[in-house]
Amino acid sequence: MATVKLIEYAQASPEVRAVYDDIMATRKIDAINNFWKALASHPPTLRRTWETLKSVMAPGALDPLTKEMVYLAVSATNGCDYCTASHTASARKQGMTDAMLGELMAVVGMANETNRLADGYQVEIDELFLRRD
Amino acid sequence: MATVKLIEYAQASPEVRAVYDDIMATRKIDAINNFWKALASHPPTLRRTWETLKSVMAPGALDPLTKEMVYLAVSATNGCDYCTASHTASARKQGMTDAMLGELMAVVGMANETNRLADGYQVEIDELFLRRD
Amino acid sequence: MATVKLIEYAQASPEVRAVYDDIMATRKIDAINNFWKALASHPPTLRRTWETLKSVMAPGALDPLTKEMVYLAVSATNGCDYCTASHTASARKQGMTDAMLGELMAVVGMANETNRLADGYQVEIDELFLRRD
Amino acid sequence: MATVKLIEYAQASPEVRAVYDDIMATRKIDAINNFWKALASHPPTLRRTWETLKSVMAPGALDPLTKEMVYLAVSATNGCDYCTASHTASARKQGMTDAMLGELMAVVGMANETNRLADGYQVEIDELFLRRD
Amino acid sequence: MATVKLIEYAQASPEVRAVYDDIMATRKIDAINNFWKALASHPPTLRRTWETLKSVMAPGALDPLTKEMVYLAVSATNGCDYCTASHTASARKQGMTDAMLGELMAVVGMANETNRLADGYQVEIDELFLRRD
Amino acid sequence: MATVKLIEYAQASPEVRAVYDDIMATRKIDAINNFWKALASHPPTLRRTWETLKSVMAPGALDPLTKEMVYLAVSATNGCDYCTASHTASARKQGMTDAMLGELMAVVGMANETNRLADGYQVEIDELFLRRD
User: Domains along chain B?
Assistant: First the structure.
């Protein structure tokens, strides 16, 4: 159970409803998921988080599916259950197939393994990896 | 300084050299970076890690650039300096532009923020995110 | 279900009971929560952990509410469900309001975001941040 | 060395300069630290991150010193060197004494220890910690 | 609920069944646990992960019980519920007593505490800890 | 550079010297490493941390070498450079060979990989792993 009361649309203040309306319009959905209902316990965090998320996840130099898969990779690495569930669902909606999910998780697993090997052996960064302007 | 002696090609056993040769041939490079020289202190780990990495990072349902960016996202999330440096370099080699790196880091930052908000408020997973067969 | 048998007061050894009694007296409560019942499976860990916690969380240069909020910030960052639930409850008991929790989580979210941006871009520490005696 | 070119004020675009000017005016300082110079490689991330940080860290239900100490606690937990250095400096500027830093780190250490004990024994959350409306 | 369909033996392809058969033969068990059934959604990951695990966990310079306890220490540190449950069970099967588990968790807790103290104070590595060939 | 002034023996208070003396006597060494010199900036943390470490790392149901290797496994997983360097040195002093270090790191890498696969696929814990009294 969340540590704050979830704010339902019916009880929401106009400020919160405006964000909820924008979430539903942007995503073409007709219900708000629990994450936003929890953030609504602190309206400035709700508004800022939604606005940042909306612009960060919009199509740009990277397409929305790639962004969703990166989001999922980070969420799995952090062991965040809520985010793993919601971004797996979002990525599937954007077109992620089982084969893509399988390869994504294989990369996530491998990166987590080699990150700890590099840290565990305290390997020094090679000259060739340094940025050159 | 690494906690194990780095194994240079000249001093390497035939088993280690075979892996080094395959790394250089596969990646079309003519030198081995420190990560592999450290793993070579334990030849079975060197061989297994290289073979897994080689097949995980090969083109498949996801293209190599996407895989490199996911690897970088995980490495930044784990705060692994070596891996962040090496996979930023690899992703650039595969075509990652500054604009793509900027968007990638924005997604990584955002995911790390919302992962902790979801965990911090202990938000329950919505029914609609559960897998349906 | 915990991976060890929880030790109830009725079955506890005198050594464990002494710690339980001190926890209840110090906190002015009349029941022991599951964390301590699990640690009691290894009495030296129970005793050491309680004694350290008791002195670390006592009022000092920082007040108990600030300490509870820091504890919650760390627990949310680590994604520890048990600790997030128990320290949210403790902080509320010490006077944390919904507005304070909202701002606390906003700082936690922001810190997690910028930590990964600083790591992801491998930003070098500025001279001005170094300690000067 | 950062993986992107740091953007100095002299070379910055008007959009980036506007953010730099606001950072210096808000903080009453006359130089920009490396974190922002790295974010400036992607101007939308620079602007969004600064604007969020500015409002999240402003005085509110929590005072700025408490917020800086929470930021430091998260940065130490994540092992982010840059953020630990910069937020230790900021917290000292806001009035954190050696005694306060000592107690802060003691809480951070303790929370990290008990987080892993609770996770390691898979302790179930007690009924009494659950939110009641 | 897992984000992929678990593959039961009866529905498994010959490739997946071959891995399942080897898992059951190697471990002298007659059922497959959920982890492998989830990995089977991507057969190359199933095969590679099992083969690596099988050789990494085999007796060598370290005995299987020590390896299981190290696995558990990492899983508790990462807060992975599934892995903590399964490796606590495996370690007990290999002979881990309650006293050993108690001492293991005490070391895990202590290491997590001092890791963050060393990072939080940014302690520099002493010369005497550097490798000497 | 550490964020606090390191306390050298010559400048230390009697309380701090007593801890330093016990560290040197217990470990049969004649110098204090930087970690303790940093903790000495807050004497109660120095004393508590040393006393806990001394009893946690003493021989018991687990031998000191196993404890040092578990400590190293956690430190590598957390990416703590200082702790990785110091506990690699301590483990070698206790008899860890290159072959043992190689196997240890292989287990650490593997555990970090499978932790994230289990979390990424949200695998449910099997009945058979649950504790039975």
Answer: 1-56 (1.20.1290.10), 59-123 (1.20.1290.10)
